[in-house]
Amino acid sequence: MANEEDDPIIQEIDVFLARSLLEKLYLFQYPIRPASMTYDDVTHLSAKIKPKQQKVELEMAIDTLNPNYCRSKGEQIALNVDGTCTDETSTYSSKLMDKQTFCSSQAASNVSRYAAAVYKKGELHLTPLHGILQLRPSFTYLDKADAKHREREAVNEGGDSSQDEAEDDVKQITVRFSRPETEQARQRRVQSYEFLQKRQAEEHWVHLQYYGLKDSRSEHERQYLFSQGHGLAENTELIKSPSEYLMMLMPPSVEEENEKPMAPSNVLSMAQLRTLPLADQIKILMKNVKVMPFANLLGLLGSGTDPTAVLRCVQQVALLVQGNWVVKSDVLYPKDTSSPHSGVPAEVLCRGRDFVMWKFTQDRWVVRKEVAAVTKLCPEDVKDFLEHMSVARINKGWEFMLPYDEDFVKKHPDIVQRQQMLWMGIQAKLEKVYNLLKEHLTPKKQEAQSAHPLLVSGEQRVNMAKAKVKQNYGQLEKEFQRQKAEMKSNDSSAKPDAPNIRIKEEPVSVEEPMDTSAHEGLNNGLVNGLHPAQGPMEPVNGHLPGGCIDRVAQELKAFVSSTFKKQFVLTLSELKRLFNLHLASLPPGHTLFSGISDKMLQDMVLDTGCKQILVPFPPQTAASPDELKVYALWEAGDTYDQHRQVLLEIFSKNYRVRRNVIQSQLSQECGEDLNKQEVDRVLKDCCVSYGGMWYLKGTVQS
């Protein structure tokens, strides 16, 4: 109060609000210029604006006669930009930098607090500003100079290059088909910087007419800065109580929220989260965290939250796995969406992820190959499923991310029982969709849901393995003695051959058995890809029975024969890849899971009428040994056998060949003129084209 008495009111001024230029008035902030060269001395040549972006571009003349202007520098800039010739496209027609362009940027995103004021005859007239723009010099003419310089260099360097080009090289064209865009991908693309720049560039410029300070039109427009009517009815906004007027000037929270930078669409602060309903809070938390104990969920929701209400809501968006809550698949993959990796629809992704979740209700460990073999999904999708709820362990598989929550299971047995019933329904659906075997569906340990999982140390594993080996060795030794006694009693002449019997024999070869374990890990009871209870072959003394060997050979021969009748030419690497894909399509326990080595596969290829083509690869090739072994079907039983044999003979002497050489050689060896369709048929069977040359399939070295 004392300060107010010391500062008396000297004058009261009436304030009026002018509306004539509402949403039309902009404030331009020009760069600082030398005192000897003010903006009054500058002529505005042109002006244009993009209204939506509030972007302005002004072209202003420079006073070249001013003593502060450097004429030599202006001539040099004009020469660099336009060169020696002048035409209509020249930036500086006078061969002198006599103008400059200014581009605007927004000085403030929120200008609702700013106004232009005019004081006249004891009255203050306010007009709200629609934008505040800062003008800065534009240097696009430098980009134009660089572009012309590069063009001149290209013309000078490209004069003699055409003489060296005898013929156009054939280039391989890669055709790619775009995947259907998901809603999340579309939102990311719309919010990207590149998309926003493209949208801004698409807006057309609106050309403006500039009027000087002393122009009659400017004088006329300046009159609109004054309020047109001084009646109170025209200025009802100013008839407010002091508290209302202060609230209009300084809103408490709305303005502050507008000034905050916008967060990404997938980011939500805890303060914003707690303003949502409880069900939405839980859904957002589970969707982002994916796996969470119930105690942690309560902690994130804040104190005072009813645990019963949380339990009721969490069951709508999550399932119980090992005492922890895991978000449901349909929450992560809504309807009408698809995989960003493979384009698989959401329904298929949900079934695959449910299978992974169900496996973790049976055991703490899941093998990735098992999931891929059963669900038939791409590796990237399977990896996403596992990363949602587990951690990869070297040489072990994927372990569930969180420890078993025994406290929750003991406190809420009714919830656990209800979740077990839900999992029984999910298991029935999975059994119908994936045709799972009974051994896959029965849990290995019934105590897994009621106690901590058993953890076995490495030393214990080694001791258990040693004990098992000793036990198996004793059984094999007894079997050997029994067979030895039978052979002695049946035929005394077999006695000299008895010492040749061994418990187990392995072929002496430097080659490792081929990795055909496409179904390895479908169940922890699998041994070399076979179910012990359902294995059609039982080893005796380390070897398969004779009948089983015949069945394996028949199956392998059928695969090799059908594959080469389709492909004609294959490298060993490609053949092994196709064989693994064939194994993945077979049911568990098939005869081919007995273990096929590289040598066995190569011998079968030669037995089916194929020959190895010794292609002379270049010395510096980076191909693997399996890629260097090329096999081809020598006789397919059709009219093109002779043509293919001639073609293969050509490639046994040359790594790559031109088409005209192949066509002439075929005509010479076969004694007839082949038309283009026949040559194309033979080349399609055995070769591929790359860079104007022809190669045998699988031998192209990029």
Automatic annotation (TrEMBL):
Domain (DNA-directed RNA polymerase III subunit RPC5 C-terminal): residue spans on this chain: 444-702
Domain of life per record: Eukaryota
Any one GO biological process: tRNA transcription by RNA polymerase III
Region of interest called Disordered, as start-end residue ranges on this chain: 150-169, 480-501
Coiled coil ranges: none
Biased segments, Basic and acidic residues type: 480-489
InterPro entries (alphabetical): RNA_pol_III_Rpc5, RPC5_C
Gene Ontology CC, one term: RNA polymerase III complex
Name recorded for this polypeptide: RPC5 polymerase
Gene field: Polr3e
